Amino acid sequence: MTEMPTDTQNATKIGVFWRRKVTSGAVIGICILCLAGCDSLYFYRQAAGGQLSLLLGGESVAKLLDSEHLTPERRRQLLHAQSILRWGEQTMSLPSKGNYGRFVELEREHVLWNVFISPKLAFHSDSFCYPLVGCAPYRGFFEESVARSFADRYRLQGFDTYVGAVDAYSTLGWFRDPLLSSFIDYPPPALARLLLHELAHSKIWISGDVAFNESFASFVGDKGASQWSAANAIAYPPEFEDRRQAWRALVDFALAIRHTLGDLYRQPDLSEAQRLAEKTKLLNRARACYQVHRDQLGGGRFDGLMGDGLNNALLLSLSTYENWQPVFKQLFQEANEDWQAFFLAVENLAQGPDQQRAAQLVALRRKALGEQQEAAEADDHNPQTVQCEALSDHTLN
Fold it and tell me: How many Å apart are CA 286 and CA 134, to the nearest integer?
């Protein structure tokens, strides 16, 4: 774990930053991060210091590939990354715009940690607002210990909290994002999914609508990675494919829990104490259902999430990245799986007023899930079906 840079170290880095003649937009971005009105000067200092360390660290990918000291495994992964970026630009109209031309070896396993916070009886978070990109239902930290301390402050005030590790993020074109050691060694299809996900953020981004942005990028990453892998005859390793399917099943399970809890929280005839008691009962039943279907839901890998970690903040984090994915799958099918037509449809959806876009998303999601449910019901012997009495209105496939 790297230590927080001191003010002197930050001053030195900013001097180097200027000498490297990074774009004026990037300089302005750093200054805003450092000077914006904020609830914690320390937060903005660590954010600026963490971003600067990525901007100024690392080596050119081209130079690394020419190096005799590069391991065969790392060379192969860097070449895969270049292939993925070319595919994104040529096939999906996702230009990299100078991103991922450098590689940075981190001194930690993950690049940062996001903290999600939610009230006990609602699914919403305080909006943590950032210069340039808008507001989000989480706050990111470059040090895990600082992230957990921040979460503890809210937990002691009676909130549900969740701290999630992050291996990559996009600066939306304000800076040239590097390849990082936190993800470069992913299996090639997973590397493709991540890189195409991040490029999608630079394609379409609605300031402040994180659920839209992340679900959109997640769909683009998943679909694009599948196409790239097929075109290059690259398959997911069997064990990784198993893990991917288990994660998908767990997400569906968790989103069903969220929808059921949401129904509970909206019951006006129950007191706060009654809703809290019912919440505890429902979560206990959901945990019991998880244990029954544990083999289908990761074989124990997600016991921590489905144990004491199962709370509103965790469910909020999952829905942020997953809730609208069926919508984008539906739009892609309606665009005859043509990427340019798909992006045009998403842009049209993104340009509408917030309330209109929200209504369209809900309608499209219902349509998409209705069609998926019909397909699932046509297969009475589907071994992937998970049914729980606690989630009676939400059969999971």
Answer: 35
Residue 184 neighbours by CB under 8 Å, 6+ apart: 74, 77, 78, 81, 103, 191
| φ, ψ of residue 378 in degrees (nearest 5) | -70, -15
Decide: 211 and 166 in contact? Cβ < 8 Å: no
Q: Which residues, in sequence order, are CB contacts of 25 under 8 Å at separation 6+?
A: 174
Which of 169, 151, 140, 118 is CA-nearest to residue 316? 118
Question: What secondary structure, in 3-state letters, does the chain show?
Answer: CCCCCCHHHHHHHHHHHHHCCCCHHHHHHHHHHHHCCCCCHHHHHHHHHHHHHHHHCCEEHHHHHHCCCCCHHHHHHHHHHHHHHHHHHHHHCCCCCCCCCEEECCCCCCCEEEEEEECCCCCCCCCEEECCCEEECEEEECCHHHHHHHHHHHHCCCCEEEEEEECCCCCCCCCCCCEECCCCCCCHHHHHHHHHHHHHHHHCCCCCCHHHHHHHHHHHHHHHHHHHHHHCCCCCCHHHHHHHHHHHHHHHHHHHHHHHHHHHHCCCCCCHHHHHHHHHHHHHHHHHHHHHCCCCCCCCCCHHHHCCCCCHHHHHHHHHHHCCHHHHHHHHHHCCCCHHHHHHHHHHHHHCCHHHHHHHHHHHHHHHHHHHHHHHHCCCCCCCCECCHHHCCCCEC
Decide: residue 232, CB within 10 A, 0-12 exposed, 13-18 middle, 19+ buried.
middle
- What does the pLDDT read at residue 132? 59
Angle between helix 210-231 and helix 312-322 axes, rounded to 10 deg: 60
Q: What pLDDT, in 10s, does the model give residues 250-301?
A: 999 999 999 999 999 999 999 999 999 999 999 999 999 999 999 999 999 9
Q: Which residue stretches of the chain have pLDDT < 50?
A: 1-38, 376-383, 392-397
User: Parallel, antiparallel, or unpaired for β 134-136 and 102-104?
Assistant: unpaired
Confidence at residue 243, expressed as pLDDT on a 0 to 100 scale: 86
